[in-house]
Design brief:
The chain is of the alpha+beta class. It has helices at 42-129, 175-181, 192-200, 303-306, and strands at residues 133-137, 146-153, 159-167, 186-188, 205-208, 213-220, 222-225, 229-238, 244-250, 255-259, 272-278, 284-290, 311-313. The protein has a domain at 133-298. The protein is 34% helix and 25% strand. A hairpin with a 5-residue loop joins strand 11 (272-278) and strand 12.
Amino acid sequence: MQKPTTNDLPVISHDEVAPEVADVSQVVEPVPVVVQDEGLELSDWLNIAMLFATIVSLGIAAYATWQNAKTAREASENAQDAADQMEEIAHASQSTMWTARDQLDRLEIMTATETQILGGLDDVMLALFRPRMNAYLGSPIHEKGYLPLVVENVGKSPARNVTVRFNPPLPEPDVDRLNANTSELVDYRKSPVELTLAKYEGKTFKTWAPNQSTSVPFWATKVERFPLREVGESKRFVNADGTPADAVLVRKQSDGAMLLDESGDGIPADVEVIINYSDDNGEQYEDSVSLNPDLWVSTTFSSKERHSSSVTYGADD
């Protein structure tokens, strides 16, 4: 056994604390360590593989997240575009709807107009081809004779169940009164009123053909009548006392001016002829005509007719 080596260091008294001094001879030298490199074990490779897989997974996840974000952004943009297109389509649809409504309104107006036109055409056709009765005072055959009443169908189809009446009703015929109210050149044997009533009063004509007309003596011209010999005051001669002398007025004929307020029979000038009838479809019509004898005022006649001595109406021969 090795004994410790005596050093030359001074001995420290127990009464004083000496500083601690390392004994160089007691320092242990380092022991060399030999490290043997045996390579990576399986667990290390697994850890590396897991790390790599984690990195790849994170990359894939990041890429997927980016792709999803991109897809979502594109989807959002597409959705916005689709929304814009839908809004445009909605506006276009609304505009189309209003346009269609306007077209329908116009179509309704056109249809109504067409219906009115067709209805108007029907009315025009009916008016063109319906029977149409008329009445008027015909031309006198003598300057102081009568005016005939002419009744005719001026329409395009036959008139059915024709009746003729007067407003106001015609007066009772009176030949004596008639001859007293008419020209001395005219001798009435029958009153025109009598002949007219015999033709129309209470009569119904089953058929009156188009363009068919008939006439009957009606308006006996009334004239003012004066006596052939009349005594009055002279405008040139006077009596001895200065008063106007009597004068005798001798007339060649007693006829005076024509009177148009009424006829010789007493028919008023504003008398109306009322004609009732129907067409082939049973449609009823009533035509009213106001006669106007003034139309024949100032009618001229030939000299032979003017200076004829007399005419006779209504004789039985």
